[in-house]
Amino acid sequence: MIYEFPDLSEPLRQGDIFIRLPRIEISLKEILLAEEFGPRLISWDKIASTSEPISLILQVRPVIGIVASQDCDARRSRDITLCEIRDFKQVEGKCKDTSSSKSWKTIITQHARINQKWFYLPPDEKAGLLDKMAVDFMVTLRIPREDLEAMRSLRKARLNKIARDHFRERISEFFRRYSYNEWYALNKEELNAYLSEYPDTTPYEWQKRESN
User: Fold this and answer.
1) DSSP letter, residue 108
2) Is 6 left (phi over 0), alpha (psi -120 to 50) or beta?
3) Alpha helix positions (H), the chain
4) In the predicted structure, residue 110 carries a pLDDT above the cut 90
5) What H or E segment, with its residue span, contains residue 79?
6) What percent of the chain has pLDDT over 90?
7) Do 68 and 79 form a contact (C-beta atoms < 8 A)?
8) pTM for the whole structure
9) Considering only CA atoms, which of 24, 104, 83 is closest in space to residue 58?
10) Which of 166, 172, 164, 173 is nearest to 15 (CA)?
11) Contact between residue 179 and residue 23 where contact means Cβ atoms under 8 Å apart
Protein backbone atom coordinates (compact mmCIF):
# COMPACT_ATOMS: atom_id res chain seq x y z
CA MET A 1 0.00 0.00 0.00
CA ILE A 2 1.36 3.42 0.97
CA TYR A 3 4.00 2.22 3.43
CA GLU A 4 7.73 1.61 3.48
CA PHE A 5 9.55 -0.53 6.02
CA PRO A 6 12.78 1.14 7.14
CA ASP A 7 15.73 -0.69 8.62
CA LEU A 8 16.39 -0.28 12.34
CA SER A 9 19.51 1.72 11.53
CA GLU A 10 17.62 4.41 9.62
CA PRO A 11 17.04 7.72 11.49
CA LEU A 12 13.67 8.99 12.60
CA ARG A 13 11.60 10.72 9.95
CA GLN A 14 8.28 12.45 9.73
CA GLY A 15 5.70 9.79 8.88
CA ASP A 16 7.32 7.00 10.92
CA ILE A 17 4.68 4.77 12.50
CA PHE A 18 5.31 3.37 15.99
CA ILE A 19 3.23 0.82 17.87
CA ARG A 20 2.73 0.38 21.62
CA LEU A 21 3.71 3.91 22.60
CA PRO A 22 2.65 5.05 26.10
CA ARG A 23 -0.21 7.50 26.36
CA ILE A 24 -0.72 8.87 29.85
CA GLU A 25 -4.29 9.22 31.08
CA ILE A 26 -4.66 11.98 33.67
CA SER A 27 -7.49 13.98 35.22
CA LEU A 28 -6.61 17.27 36.88
CA LYS A 29 -9.64 16.87 39.14
CA GLU A 30 -8.55 13.53 40.58
CA ILE A 31 -4.83 12.79 40.77
CA LEU A 32 -3.45 9.83 42.70
CA LEU A 33 -0.58 11.16 44.77
CA ALA A 34 2.00 8.54 45.79
CA GLU A 35 2.89 9.10 49.43
CA GLU A 36 4.85 7.17 52.06
CA PHE A 37 1.77 5.78 53.80
CA GLY A 38 -0.21 5.02 50.66
CA PRO A 39 -1.75 6.84 47.67
CA ARG A 40 -3.98 9.86 48.22
CA LEU A 41 -6.59 11.25 45.82
CA ILE A 42 -6.22 15.01 45.30
CA SER A 43 -6.93 17.69 42.69
CA TRP A 44 -4.04 19.27 40.81
CA ASP A 45 -4.74 22.82 42.01
CA LYS A 46 -3.94 21.69 45.57
CA ILE A 47 -0.36 20.78 44.65
CA ALA A 48 0.33 22.88 41.54
CA SER A 49 2.26 25.58 43.45
CA THR A 50 4.85 23.24 44.91
CA SER A 51 8.39 23.52 43.55
CA GLU A 52 9.42 20.02 44.58
CA PRO A 53 9.13 16.94 42.35
CA ILE A 54 5.81 15.11 42.80
CA SER A 55 5.32 11.36 42.55
CA LEU A 56 2.02 10.35 40.99
CA ILE A 57 0.32 7.08 40.10
CA LEU A 58 -0.90 7.37 36.51
CA GLN A 59 -2.75 5.19 34.04
CA VAL A 60 -0.82 4.46 30.86
CA ARG A 61 -2.15 2.64 27.80
CA PRO A 62 -0.33 1.63 24.61
CA VAL A 63 -1.31 3.43 21.40
CA ILE A 64 -0.13 3.70 17.81
CA GLY A 65 1.52 6.98 16.85
CA ILE A 66 3.05 8.67 13.83
CA VAL A 67 5.93 11.15 13.90
CA ALA A 68 4.60 14.64 13.21
CA SER A 69 7.88 16.51 13.80
CA GLN A 70 9.68 17.61 10.65
CA ASP A 71 12.74 15.63 9.59
CA CYS A 72 15.22 18.23 10.84
CA ASP A 73 13.54 18.27 14.26
CA ALA A 74 13.28 14.47 14.31
CA ARG A 75 17.07 14.32 14.03
CA ARG A 76 18.06 17.02 16.53
CA SER A 77 15.24 18.16 18.82
CA ARG A 78 15.10 17.09 22.44
CA ASP A 79 11.49 15.92 22.07
CA ILE A 80 9.53 14.37 19.22
CA THR A 81 5.86 15.14 18.63
CA LEU A 82 3.67 12.29 17.44
CA CYS A 83 -0.03 12.17 16.64
CA GLU A 84 -2.11 9.24 17.79
CA ILE A 85 -3.43 6.81 15.18
CA ARG A 86 -6.94 5.64 15.98
CA ASP A 87 -9.69 3.54 14.45
CA PHE A 88 -11.09 5.53 11.51
CA LYS A 89 -14.68 5.07 12.65
CA GLN A 90 -13.80 6.65 16.02
CA VAL A 91 -12.14 9.66 14.40
CA GLU A 92 -14.67 10.31 11.62
CA GLY A 93 -18.22 9.85 12.88
CA LYS A 94 -19.68 9.98 9.38
CA CYS A 95 -18.29 6.54 8.60
CA LYS A 96 -19.47 4.65 11.68
CA ASP A 97 -22.12 2.80 9.65
CA THR A 98 -20.22 2.72 6.36
CA SER A 99 -19.85 -0.68 4.72
CA SER A 100 -19.98 -0.39 0.91
CA SER A 101 -16.89 0.33 -1.19
CA LYS A 102 -18.72 3.22 -2.89
CA SER A 103 -19.40 4.93 0.46
CA TRP A 104 -15.83 4.36 1.62
CA LYS A 105 -14.54 5.83 -1.62
CA THR A 106 -16.54 9.02 -1.03
CA ILE A 107 -15.40 9.42 2.56
CA ILE A 108 -11.74 8.66 1.87
CA THR A 109 -11.53 11.06 -1.09
CA GLN A 110 -14.11 13.84 -0.65
CA HIS A 111 -14.25 14.06 3.13
CA ALA A 112 -10.48 13.89 3.35
CA ARG A 113 -10.45 17.23 1.53
CA ILE A 114 -13.14 18.73 3.76
CA ASN A 115 -12.15 17.50 7.22
CA GLN A 116 -8.69 18.76 8.16
CA LYS A 117 -8.61 17.04 11.56
CA TRP A 118 -7.51 13.61 10.33
CA PHE A 119 -5.35 11.79 7.81
CA TYR A 120 -6.55 8.45 6.47
CA LEU A 121 -4.36 5.32 6.72
CA PRO A 122 -5.39 2.12 4.90
CA PRO A 123 -4.97 -1.22 6.68
CA ASP A 124 -1.70 -3.11 6.35
CA GLU A 125 -0.82 -5.94 8.70
CA LYS A 126 2.92 -5.47 8.26
CA ALA A 127 2.54 -1.82 9.23
CA GLY A 128 0.63 -2.81 12.39
CA LEU A 129 -2.64 -1.39 11.08
CA LEU A 130 -5.28 -4.12 11.05
CA ASP A 131 -8.23 -1.94 10.05
CA LYS A 132 -8.96 1.39 8.40
CA MET A 133 -7.22 3.94 10.63
CA ALA A 134 -6.72 7.70 10.84
CA VAL A 135 -4.14 10.04 12.25
CA ASP A 136 -5.98 12.19 14.79
CA PHE A 137 -4.30 15.60 14.69
CA MET A 138 -6.21 16.57 17.85
CA VAL A 139 -4.34 14.00 19.98
CA THR A 140 -0.57 14.40 20.32
CA LEU A 141 2.17 12.63 22.24
CA ARG A 142 5.57 14.00 23.26
CA ILE A 143 8.44 11.57 23.66
CA PRO A 144 12.16 12.35 24.20
CA ARG A 145 14.01 11.86 20.92
CA GLU A 146 16.76 9.71 22.42
CA ASP A 147 14.17 7.41 23.99
CA LEU A 148 12.30 7.02 20.71
CA GLU A 149 15.56 6.34 18.86
CA ALA A 150 16.37 3.62 21.38
CA MET A 151 12.94 2.06 20.75
CA ARG A 152 13.15 1.88 16.96
CA SER A 153 12.16 -1.78 17.26
CA LEU A 154 8.63 -0.40 17.80
CA ARG A 155 8.73 1.37 14.43
CA LYS A 156 6.64 -0.77 12.11
CA ALA A 157 6.59 1.37 8.98
CA ARG A 158 6.74 4.85 7.50
CA LEU A 159 4.72 6.63 4.85
CA ASN A 160 6.06 6.48 1.31
CA LYS A 161 6.97 9.73 -0.47
CA ILE A 162 3.52 10.45 -1.93
CA ALA A 163 1.74 9.83 1.37
CA ARG A 164 4.44 11.62 3.39
CA ASP A 165 4.21 14.77 1.25
CA HIS A 166 0.42 14.71 1.62
CA PHE A 167 0.73 14.09 5.39
CA ARG A 168 3.06 17.07 5.76
CA GLU A 169 0.61 19.35 3.98
CA ARG A 170 -2.33 18.10 6.04
CA ILE A 171 -0.48 18.85 9.28
CA SER A 172 0.29 22.39 8.13
CA GLU A 173 -3.32 22.88 7.00
CA PHE A 174 -4.61 21.70 10.36
CA PHE A 175 -2.48 24.05 12.45
CA ARG A 176 -3.00 27.11 10.27
CA ARG A 177 -6.72 26.56 9.63
CA TYR A 178 -9.17 29.30 10.58
CA SER A 179 -11.53 27.88 13.17
CA TYR A 180 -15.19 28.87 12.82
CA ASN A 181 -18.67 27.42 13.25
CA GLU A 182 -19.83 26.58 9.75
CA TRP A 183 -23.52 27.09 10.56
CA TYR A 184 -23.26 30.81 11.45
CA ALA A 185 -24.66 32.06 8.13
CA LEU A 186 -27.59 29.64 7.81
CA ASN A 187 -31.15 30.96 7.73
CA LYS A 188 -34.03 29.41 9.67
CA GLU A 189 -34.83 26.63 7.20
CA GLU A 190 -31.18 25.81 6.54
CA LEU A 191 -30.41 25.76 10.25
CA ASN A 192 -33.30 23.39 10.97
CA ALA A 193 -31.95 21.02 8.34
CA TYR A 194 -28.49 21.32 9.89
CA LEU A 195 -29.86 20.65 13.38
CA SER A 196 -31.52 17.46 12.19
CA GLU A 197 -28.08 16.13 11.34
CA TYR A 198 -26.10 17.83 14.13
CA PRO A 199 -28.53 18.19 17.08
CA ASP A 200 -25.81 19.37 19.51
CA THR A 201 -25.29 22.57 17.51
CA THR A 202 -25.87 25.83 19.40
CA PRO A 203 -27.49 28.51 17.17
CA TYR A 204 -26.28 32.11 17.31
CA GLU A 205 -28.45 34.84 18.83
CA TRP A 206 -29.46 36.23 15.42
CA GLN A 207 -30.54 32.77 14.35
CA LYS A 208 -32.58 32.34 17.51
CA ARG A 209 -34.34 35.67 16.86
CA GLU A 210 -35.12 34.64 13.29
CA SER A 211 -36.66 31.40 14.59
CA ASN A 212 -39.05 33.26 16.92
Assistant:
1) I
2) beta
3) 71-76, 88-91, 101-106, 112-114, 145-150, 161-176, 188-197, 205-211
4) no
5) strand 79-87
6) 65
7) no
8) 0.83
9) 24
10) 164
11) no
